[in-house]
Specification:
Elements lengths: L5 E6 L3 H12 L4 E5 L8 H6 L1 H19 L14 H25 L3 E4 L1 E4 L4 E7 L5 E13 L3 E3 L25 E5 L3 H13 L2 E6 L10 H14 L2 E4 L3 E7 L2 E6 L4 E4 L1 E4 L3 E3 L6 H4 L22 E3 L10 H16 L17 E3 L5 E5 L2 H8 L2 E8 L4 H4 L5 E8 L5 E7 L3 H13 L4 H6 L20
Parallel strand pairs: 1-2, 1-6, 2-3, 6-16, 8-9, 8-14, 9-10
Antiparallel strand pairs: 4-5, 5-6, 7-15, 11-12, 12-13, 17-18, 18-21, 19-20, 20-21
Helix pairs in contact: 1-8, 3-5
């Protein structure tokens, strides 16, 4: 019989933490999960201020274009107008519903859900900072055989004059009033997505990025293509540009740029990266090794240098994706409490992890970029197709679609697949299964396409581009 209060104590109620807690409890473990429920609520960044509300707003942003494009198909009448308050209220209702679902799943599995901020005091010891009934601070102490850190990440805003006037992706969903002029600082997927979304919702969007092109780390051709499409849609994208300061004036926020130019805005969104959420966890006290920006260092089984302490998800600063955190959580649960009946212990591979960027148009990608593939495999063959989607032959839109396959010439295996276009994420997900299974270009070629779809282009490209 364990002398500890719990077999597993999970710090953080996001995707990875909730999955680990639920599954461990279902294996018979005594599990606690600590989350400060007075802030975002259960579900973490993804549910509260990330993937889910962002995708909902992305859907919302398409309706203005859809109304305009419908005229080419014979629909008549004035364009609808956005009620920003209704969108925010409906989103908040859905997020609250999801928070409740997460709580019910945890408690239904037998997890003890604790409301408070957890700090690690020792290899098996924790303190939970809470509020007493009268509002005064209190604390409770617990012990656990195993501790799992799943506290995720948090937006990083650099220090500069006027920093107090800017917002992050945490606040963007509930801005009041709606920003008629929005400056987005950053060139990653979060910055690019919000630039597209608010442009679609009706803001005059200026996106500033100090680099040579947005979406660093993605395939270069994809980066240039989606940037051009965003500009064509109305985003004022300024590359090689950095902010000097932000000042509040009677006319709005005045953003001064290097070189002396200025941009006026109603809101300035800084999306310049995220850092592991480790402040106040007590990692230094117990000696947990940390890497760049405080990331928790773990081995292949997500164990830290302190044997009783594990970490998964964004706090380890590997791949910051919700499904990755879920997969990592299952590896930990199987390792500590055994796999599900009749199943082998799970492992986690970071090869061929698909992802999507909800810019307008969307980006879907799995596998290597062209540059990465060339470096890794040497000889590669690139297949490429660019076209106007069938829908836009009548819609009047000038949006174009890009699809690209990268093949290791020696093995004929498809090692990179990229798409810029409508519903790219939905299309690429299925191809990711084939690539994970090792599909060759010959297998792609022998697969019958579904006509007429954009997706069929991936199985009909025959002539190499290079």
């Amino acid at each position: 019989m364990s002398t500890h209060d719990f077999d597993l104590f999970v710090i953080g109620g996001g995707s990875g933490g909730v999955r680990a807690a639920r599954m461990a409890a279902q294996r018979g473990a005594r599990v606690a999960l600590a989350e400060t429920l007075g802030t975002d609520g259960l579900g973490g960044t993804c549910v509260n201020v990330g993937c889910i509300p962002k995708k909902l707003y992305s859907y919302a942003a398409h309706y203005a274009d859809a109304a305009h494009e419908s005229h080419g198909f014979g629909w008549e009448g004035p364009a609808p107008t956005l009620n920003w308050g209704t969108l925010k209220a409906n989103r908040a209702t859905e997020i609250s519903r999801l928070n409740t679902v997460y709580g019910n799943l945890l408690r239904g599995s037998g997890v003890t859900v604790l409301n408070g901020f957890a700090r690690i005091d020792g290899e098996h010891a924790l303190t939970l900072a809470t509020l007493n009934a009268d509002g005064s601070p209190g604390h409770q102490s617990y012990t656990a055989k195993h501790i799992l850190i799943a506290t995720g990440g948090t937006p990083h805003v650099p220090h500069f004059v006027g920093r107090e006037h800017v917002i992050t992706s945490n606040e963007i969903f509930d801005l009041e009033p709606f920003p008629q002029r929005l400056v987005v600082v950053g060139g990653g997927y979060i910055a690019s997505e919000f630039a597209s979304i608010f442009n679609g919702l009706g803001s005059k969007v200026t996106q500033l990025y100090r680099g040579e092109q947005i979406l660093r780390g993605f395939d270069d051709e994809v980066r240039h293509f989606v940037a051009a499409e965003m500009v064509k849609a109305g985003v004022d994208l300024r590359l090689g540009t950095d902010v000097v300061d932000v000042r509040k004036t009677a006319e709005g926020l005045r953003v001064e740029l290097e070189g002396g130019n200025t941009v006026m805005a109603d809101a300035v969104l800084y999306a310049t990266g995220r850092v592991p959420n480790v402040k106040g966890l007590g990692l230094e006290t117990v000696g947990v090794a940390q890497g760049k920006q405080g990331a928790v260092v773990v081995d292949a089984h997500y164990r830290t240098n302190v044997p009783s302490i594990f970490a998964v998800g964004d706090v380890t600063n590997r791949l910051q994706l919700t499904p990755v955190a879920l997969g990592e959580a299952m590896v930990v649960v199987d390792q500590l409490f055994g796999p599900a009946a009749g199943k082998p212990p799970r492992s986690m591979s970071y090869e061929f992890v698909p992802t999507a960027i909800f810019t307008h148009p969307n980006v879907g990608t799995v596998g290597h970029s062209e540059a990465e593939a060339r470096e890794k495999f040497g000889h590669i063959t690139v297949f490429r197709s660019e076209f106007k989607a069938l829908k836009h032959t009548l819609s009047g839109s000038s949006e174009r679609t890009l699809m690209k396959l990268i093949v290791d010439t020696a093995s004929d295996r498809v090692v990179g697949l990229h798409m810029v276009g409508t519903e790219a994420g939905e299309i690429v997900q299925g191809f990711a299964v084939a690539m994970k299974a090792g599909a060759t270009k010959a297998v792609f070629d022998s697969t019958i396409g579904i006509h007429p779809t954009a997706a069929e282009e991936f199985v009909t490209m025959r002539e190499p581009a290079r």
